[in-house]
Amino acid sequence: MSDARRPLEGKVALVTGGSRGIGRSIARHLAAAGARVALTYHENASLAADVVSRITADGASAVSVHLSLPSRDSVRKALREIGDVLGPVDILVNNAGISQEKPFESITDDDWVRMIAVNLQGPFMCTQEVLPGMVRKNWGRIINISSVGGQWGGFNQVHYAAAKAGLINLTKSTARIYGRHGITANAIAIGLVLTDMSRREMESDEGRRKVETIPLGRAGEPEEVARVAVFLAGKGSAYVNGKTINVNGGMYVG
Protein backbone atom coordinates (compact mmCIF):
# COMPACT_ATOMS: atom_id res chain seq x y z
CA MET A 1 0.00 0.00 0.00
CA SER A 2 1.30 3.44 -0.91
CA ASP A 3 1.42 6.53 1.29
CA ALA A 4 1.69 10.23 0.55
CA ARG A 5 5.47 10.05 0.48
CA ARG A 6 5.65 6.98 -1.75
CA PRO A 7 2.56 7.16 -3.98
CA LEU A 8 3.96 4.71 -6.54
CA GLU A 9 4.69 1.93 -4.06
CA GLY A 10 4.12 -1.46 -5.70
CA LYS A 11 4.38 -0.14 -9.27
CA VAL A 12 7.07 -1.05 -11.81
CA ALA A 13 8.30 1.78 -14.03
CA LEU A 14 10.36 1.54 -17.19
CA VAL A 15 12.28 4.61 -18.31
CA THR A 16 13.92 4.27 -21.71
CA GLY A 17 17.13 6.23 -22.10
CA GLY A 18 17.38 6.48 -18.33
CA SER A 19 21.15 6.59 -17.99
CA ARG A 20 21.54 10.35 -18.34
CA GLY A 21 19.82 13.71 -18.67
CA ILE A 22 16.06 13.86 -18.37
CA GLY A 23 15.68 10.08 -18.25
CA ARG A 24 18.14 9.81 -15.37
CA SER A 25 16.22 12.41 -13.39
CA ILE A 26 12.85 10.78 -14.13
CA ALA A 27 14.16 7.37 -13.04
CA ARG A 28 15.42 8.75 -9.73
CA HIS A 29 12.23 10.68 -9.02
CA LEU A 30 10.01 7.68 -9.80
CA ALA A 31 12.13 5.57 -7.47
CA ALA A 32 11.87 8.20 -4.74
CA ALA A 33 8.09 8.02 -5.18
CA GLY A 34 8.18 4.29 -4.43
CA ALA A 35 8.30 2.67 -7.86
CA ARG A 36 10.60 -0.21 -8.72
CA VAL A 37 12.49 1.25 -11.65
CA ALA A 38 14.03 -0.26 -14.76
CA LEU A 39 16.08 2.04 -16.93
CA THR A 40 17.55 1.33 -20.31
CA TYR A 41 20.78 2.31 -22.01
CA HIS A 42 22.00 1.89 -25.55
CA GLU A 43 25.78 2.23 -25.30
CA ASN A 44 26.97 3.34 -21.87
CA ALA A 45 26.33 0.55 -19.37
CA SER A 46 28.48 2.25 -16.73
CA LEU A 47 26.34 5.39 -16.69
CA ALA A 48 23.24 3.26 -16.28
CA ALA A 49 24.89 1.28 -13.50
CA ASP A 50 25.69 4.52 -11.71
CA VAL A 51 22.02 5.56 -11.77
CA VAL A 52 21.02 2.15 -10.40
CA SER A 53 23.60 2.38 -7.61
CA ARG A 54 22.37 5.81 -6.59
CA ILE A 55 18.76 4.64 -6.52
CA THR A 56 19.55 1.50 -4.51
CA ALA A 57 21.70 3.52 -2.12
CA ASP A 58 18.55 5.47 -1.31
CA GLY A 59 16.78 2.23 -0.42
CA ALA A 60 14.78 1.77 -3.63
CA SER A 61 14.82 -0.98 -6.25
CA ALA A 62 16.28 -0.51 -9.72
CA VAL A 63 17.85 -2.41 -12.59
CA SER A 64 19.39 -1.37 -15.89
CA VAL A 65 18.94 -3.26 -19.15
CA HIS A 66 20.28 -2.82 -22.65
CA LEU A 67 17.85 -1.58 -25.30
CA SER A 68 18.48 -0.94 -28.97
CA LEU A 69 15.71 0.98 -30.72
CA PRO A 70 13.91 0.26 -32.95
CA SER A 71 14.61 -3.47 -32.58
CA ARG A 72 11.48 -5.42 -31.65
CA ASP A 73 13.62 -8.32 -30.42
CA SER A 74 15.60 -5.97 -28.19
CA VAL A 75 12.40 -4.50 -26.71
CA ARG A 76 11.02 -7.95 -25.95
CA LYS A 77 14.29 -9.13 -24.45
CA ALA A 78 14.50 -6.07 -22.21
CA LEU A 79 10.93 -6.55 -21.01
CA ARG A 80 11.60 -10.21 -20.20
CA GLU A 81 14.64 -9.25 -18.14
CA ILE A 82 12.69 -6.56 -16.31
CA GLY A 83 9.79 -8.93 -15.67
CA ASP A 84 12.09 -11.57 -14.20
CA VAL A 85 13.57 -9.13 -11.68
CA LEU A 86 10.92 -6.49 -10.96
CA GLY A 87 7.69 -7.75 -12.49
CA PRO A 88 5.56 -6.52 -15.40
CA VAL A 89 5.72 -2.85 -16.34
CA ASP A 90 2.96 -0.60 -14.98
CA ILE A 91 4.45 2.75 -16.00
CA LEU A 92 6.24 3.32 -19.30
CA VAL A 93 8.22 6.49 -19.92
CA ASN A 94 9.28 6.72 -23.56
CA ASN A 95 12.24 9.03 -23.12
CA ALA A 96 15.02 7.53 -25.28
CA GLY A 97 15.73 9.60 -28.34
CA ILE A 98 18.26 11.27 -30.57
CA SER A 99 18.60 14.77 -31.99
CA GLN A 100 20.49 16.30 -34.87
CA GLU A 101 21.11 19.92 -35.80
CA LYS A 102 21.01 20.11 -39.58
CA PRO A 103 19.54 22.54 -42.16
CA PHE A 104 16.48 21.14 -43.90
CA GLU A 105 18.16 20.97 -47.30
CA SER A 106 21.02 18.92 -45.85
CA ILE A 107 18.91 16.20 -44.21
CA THR A 108 19.54 12.91 -45.97
CA ASP A 109 17.17 9.99 -46.39
CA ASP A 110 19.26 8.07 -43.85
CA ASP A 111 19.04 10.97 -41.37
CA TRP A 112 15.26 11.04 -41.75
CA VAL A 113 14.79 7.27 -41.44
CA ARG A 114 17.02 7.01 -38.36
CA MET A 115 15.29 9.92 -36.61
CA ILE A 116 11.81 8.52 -37.17
CA ALA A 117 12.97 5.00 -36.26
CA VAL A 118 14.44 5.93 -32.88
CA ASN A 119 12.14 8.79 -31.82
CA LEU A 120 8.80 7.46 -33.06
CA GLN A 121 8.98 3.81 -34.06
CA GLY A 122 10.86 2.99 -30.84
CA PRO A 123 8.15 4.40 -28.54
CA PHE A 124 5.50 2.71 -30.71
CA MET A 125 7.19 -0.66 -30.19
CA CYS A 126 7.67 -0.20 -26.44
CA THR A 127 4.07 0.93 -26.02
CA GLN A 128 2.71 -1.95 -28.07
CA GLU A 129 4.70 -4.49 -26.08
CA VAL A 130 3.69 -3.29 -22.59
CA LEU A 131 0.01 -2.73 -23.32
CA PRO A 132 -1.19 -6.36 -23.03
CA GLY A 133 0.06 -6.54 -19.44
CA MET A 134 -1.52 -3.21 -18.57
CA VAL A 135 -4.83 -4.31 -20.10
CA ARG A 136 -4.79 -7.48 -17.99
CA LYS A 137 -4.38 -5.40 -14.82
CA ASN A 138 -6.78 -2.71 -16.02
CA TRP A 139 -4.19 -0.09 -15.06
CA GLY A 140 -1.28 1.60 -16.76
CA ARG A 141 0.52 4.86 -17.38
CA ILE A 142 2.25 5.77 -20.62
CA ILE A 143 4.29 8.97 -20.62
CA ASN A 144 5.91 10.13 -23.85
CA ILE A 145 8.65 12.74 -23.79
CA SER A 146 7.95 14.94 -26.79
CA SER A 147 9.09 18.46 -27.62
CA VAL A 148 7.85 21.95 -28.35
CA GLY A 149 9.34 21.32 -31.79
CA GLY A 150 6.65 18.73 -32.35
CA GLN A 151 4.06 21.48 -31.81
CA TRP A 152 5.44 24.43 -33.73
CA GLY A 153 7.79 22.74 -36.21
CA GLY A 154 11.54 22.69 -36.53
CA PHE A 155 14.12 25.05 -37.98
CA ASN A 156 17.41 23.14 -37.91
CA GLN A 157 15.76 19.92 -36.72
CA VAL A 158 12.87 19.36 -39.11
CA HIS A 159 13.14 15.56 -38.93
CA TYR A 160 13.30 15.68 -35.12
CA ALA A 161 10.24 17.93 -34.98
CA ALA A 162 8.33 15.62 -37.33
CA ALA A 163 9.09 12.59 -35.15
CA LYS A 164 8.04 14.43 -31.99
CA ALA A 165 4.82 15.59 -33.65
CA GLY A 166 4.11 11.97 -34.51
CA LEU A 167 4.77 11.02 -30.88
CA ILE A 168 2.13 13.50 -29.72
CA ASN A 169 -0.38 11.94 -32.08
CA LEU A 170 0.62 8.43 -30.97
CA THR A 171 -0.10 9.61 -27.42
CA LYS A 172 -3.58 10.82 -28.37
CA SER A 173 -4.39 7.64 -30.27
CA THR A 174 -3.25 5.41 -27.42
CA ALA A 175 -5.32 7.45 -24.97
CA ARG A 176 -8.44 7.11 -27.10
CA ILE A 177 -8.08 3.37 -27.62
CA TYR A 178 -6.95 2.21 -24.19
CA GLY A 179 -8.50 4.67 -21.77
CA ARG A 180 -11.41 2.27 -21.21
CA HIS A 181 -8.87 -0.19 -19.81
CA GLY A 182 -7.72 2.15 -17.05
CA ILE A 183 -4.65 3.16 -19.03
CA THR A 184 -3.74 6.80 -19.53
CA ALA A 185 -1.35 8.14 -22.14
CA ASN A 186 0.07 11.64 -21.94
CA ALA A 187 2.97 13.55 -23.42
CA ILE A 188 5.37 16.08 -21.96
CA ALA A 189 6.50 18.69 -24.46
CA ILE A 190 9.89 19.90 -23.32
CA GLY A 191 11.73 22.94 -24.62
CA LEU A 192 15.34 23.77 -23.90
CA VAL A 193 16.47 21.62 -20.98
CA LEU A 194 20.02 21.58 -19.64
CA THR A 195 21.28 18.13 -20.68
CA ASP A 196 24.24 16.71 -22.57
CA MET A 197 22.03 16.19 -25.63
CA SER A 198 20.98 19.84 -25.77
CA ARG A 199 24.38 21.36 -25.02
CA ARG A 200 25.40 21.85 -28.67
CA GLU A 201 22.18 23.67 -29.47
CA MET A 202 22.39 25.77 -26.31
CA GLU A 203 25.91 26.89 -27.22
CA SER A 204 24.89 27.97 -30.71
CA ASP A 205 23.74 31.47 -31.64
CA GLU A 206 20.32 30.04 -32.50
CA GLY A 207 20.13 28.32 -29.12
CA ARG A 208 21.02 31.47 -27.23
CA ARG A 209 18.37 33.37 -29.15
CA LYS A 210 15.83 30.69 -28.23
CA VAL A 211 16.64 31.07 -24.53
CA GLU A 212 16.06 34.82 -24.82
CA THR A 213 12.55 34.22 -26.18
CA ILE A 214 11.47 31.89 -23.35
CA PRO A 215 8.99 33.81 -21.17
CA LEU A 216 10.68 32.56 -17.99
CA GLY A 217 14.02 33.72 -19.37
CA ARG A 218 15.97 30.52 -18.80
CA ALA A 219 16.38 26.92 -19.85
CA GLY A 220 14.76 24.16 -17.83
CA GLU A 221 16.29 21.63 -15.46
CA PRO A 222 15.78 17.84 -15.84
CA GLU A 223 14.18 17.73 -12.39
CA GLU A 224 11.42 20.06 -13.54
CA VAL A 225 10.43 17.53 -16.20
CA ALA A 226 10.81 14.62 -13.79
CA ARG A 227 8.35 16.06 -11.29
CA VAL A 228 5.66 16.29 -13.96
CA ALA A 229 6.38 12.70 -15.02
CA VAL A 230 5.85 11.54 -11.43
CA PHE A 231 2.53 13.37 -11.34
CA LEU A 232 1.40 11.72 -14.58
CA ALA A 233 2.40 8.33 -13.20
CA GLY A 234 0.34 8.65 -10.04
CA LYS A 235 -3.24 8.69 -8.81
CA GLY A 236 -3.51 12.46 -8.98
CA SER A 237 -3.51 12.32 -12.77
CA ALA A 238 -6.08 9.52 -13.08
CA TYR A 239 -8.42 11.70 -15.15
CA VAL A 240 -5.69 13.27 -17.29
CA ASN A 241 -5.59 11.40 -20.60
CA GLY A 242 -4.41 12.25 -24.10
CA LYS A 243 -2.92 15.52 -22.91
CA THR A 244 0.31 17.23 -23.97
CA ILE A 245 1.69 19.11 -20.99
CA ASN A 246 4.10 21.89 -21.84
CA VAL A 247 7.11 21.94 -19.54
CA ASN A 248 9.08 24.55 -21.43
CA GLY A 249 8.88 27.80 -19.52
CA GLY A 250 6.13 29.15 -21.74
CA MET A 251 8.23 28.62 -24.86
CA TYR A 252 5.27 27.30 -26.86
CA VAL A 253 3.06 30.32 -26.17
CA GLY A 254 6.02 32.68 -26.42
Describe this structure in words.
- The protein starts with 11 loop residues before the first strand and ends in a 7-residue tail after the last strand.
- Strands 3-2-1-4-5-6-7 form a seven-stranded parallel sheet, with helices on both faces.
- It has 254 residues and is an alpha/beta fold.
- It contains nine helices and seven strands; from the N terminus they run βαβαβαβαβααβαααβ.
- It has a single domain, classed as Rossmann fold, CATH 3.40.50.720.
- β2, α2 and β3 form a beta-alpha-beta unit.
- It is 46% helix and 15% strand.
Task: Provide a quick synopsis of the model.
With 254 residues, the chain is of the alpha/beta class.
What topology does this entry show?
Blueprint: E1 12-15, H1 21-32, E2 36-41, H2 45-57, E3 62-66, H3 72-85, E4 91-94, H4 109-137, E5 140-147, H5 149-152, H6 158-178, E6 183-190, H7 199-202, H8 205-213, H9 222-233, E7 244-247
Parallel strand pairs: 1-2, 1-4, 2-3, 4-5, 5-6, 6-7
What features would you highlight for this structure?
seven-stranded parallel beta sheet, 46% helix, globular, alpha/beta, Rossmann fold, 254 residues, single chain
